[in-house]
Amino acid sequence: MTEKKFFWPTVITVAAIAIASTGFFLWKYLDENRIADAGQVENVASTEACKGDFIDTHLHFDDIDFFENLIPQMKQHRIGCAIAFINMGNNGEDPREKLELVDENPGLVIPFFHVDPRSENDLAPTKLQEVINRYPGYFRGFGEIAFYRPPFQQSNLRDQIWSDLMDFLLQNDLWLQFHLRNNSQLPEFEELIAKHPDNKFLLHGPELYAELPMLLQKYNNLYFTLDTASLIEKPGFGADRVLMYPHNMKKDGFTSYFDENYQAILDSAVSKWKPVFDSAPDRVMWGTDGSISWHADKDIYNQLIRFSNDFITSLNPEYREPFTHQNASRLFLSR
């Protein structure tokens, strides 16, 4: 009797553990497949599906409400589609809702992915490959990698992890979008571009505007997304110069200065960026860098498009359509 009392509880315990383990792995399998089902390749933007006067080559898809509010503004202003950065990584966020929103608006998104890295180790190809395996053929690129914030503020592009990342991206036919800290990174950035001539680098940000003409002429695998965030600036180099990202991150930090200084801002942008177009008009593309909730407000978005149109009108006529959509369509919608 003593042996039986000991035996049956043991059997029940083992059985309970087995059932729980089976249930967990079954749930994990079903959950992963539901996520994968939410991202369908046929809903990604293509040459046939992306119709409009603009392609936005820099848009953050970090917030569902922001993106839902942005969609009608994009349609109103004939923004055919947009490169959108989708977090597939570390912070526990479920990407399913975002991927479902992409599916509900077929042709609107050219998906790039990032993994909300906590360290450079999160860029290891073995980790990124898990995303690619789940969504084969879905993503067009990786990024944005921002070197002005953690964990990349002290990164050195000469380190092996960056070459490993380049090899991974090339093997999977993925672009890389960069935002460098400042021109102190230029020597190591040039080394990386030269070392990986078959990779496609999409640079973003105003930090290297003076060096860009030289860089674009020197490296045929370098491209640039010129966003409204980089165009609409205050004079100088203060932390508050980028009006779309004011120090207080509030809408009034944009509108008050923008409305009062519109022509001066426009004249400055035309003068500042003209040499970049002259150097490589086939590799410069329009974008917004939208991400904050009020960037999707109708009145703000109207202003961004108004400014973009006035800026575009100032360009050499031969540069206009390549900048607004033709370059991006050629590079991102055809494989």
In short:
The protein is 48% helix and 14% strand. It is built from twelve helices and eight strands.
What distinguishing features does this structure have?
disordered N terminus; 48% helix; TIM Barrel; 335 residues; 12 helices; eight-stranded parallel beta sheet; 8 strands; alpha/beta; single chain
What does this structure look like?
With 335 residues, the chain is α/β, with parallel strands linked by helices. The protein has a single domain (39-332), classed as TIM Barrel (Alpha-Beta Barrel), CATH 3.20.20.140. 48% of the residues lie in helices and 14% in strands. It has twelve helices and eight strands. The protein has helices spanning 2-38, 64-76, 96-104, 125-134, 160-171, 186-195, 212-218, 228-231, 252-260, 262-279, 298-313, 317-332, and strands spanning 54-60, 79-87, 109-114, 141-146, 175-179, 201-204, 222-227, 284-287. It has an eight-stranded parallel beta sheet with strand order 1-2-3-4-5-6-7-8. Helix 1 packs parallel to helix 3 and helix 7 runs parallel beside helix 10. The longest helix has 37 residues, at 2-38. The termini are far apart. 34% of the residues are buried. Mean pLDDT is 87; it is low at 1-6 and 22-31.
- Intertermini distance: 73 Å
Secondary-structure element order, as H and E? HEHEHEHEHEHEHEHHHEHH
Strand order in the largest sheet: 1-2-3-4-5-6-7-8
Briefly note the CATH topology name: TIM Barrel
Helix/sheet category: alpha/beta
Total domain units: 1
Tell me the helix content.
Answer: 40-55%
Number of helices: 12
The fraction of residues in strands falls at 5-15%
Class in CATH? Alpha Beta
How would you describe the shape? Answer: globular
Taking the sheet with the most strands, its summary is: 8 strands, parallel
How many β strands by DSSP? 8
**Mind telling me which CATH architecture this is?**
Alpha-Beta Barrel
Instruction: Extract low-pLDDT stretches.
Output: 1-6, 22-31
* CATH level-4 homologous superfamily: Metal-dependent hydrolases
Q: Calculate Rg over CA atoms.
A: 23 Å
Q: What is the residue-mean pLDDT, rounded to a whole number?
A: 87
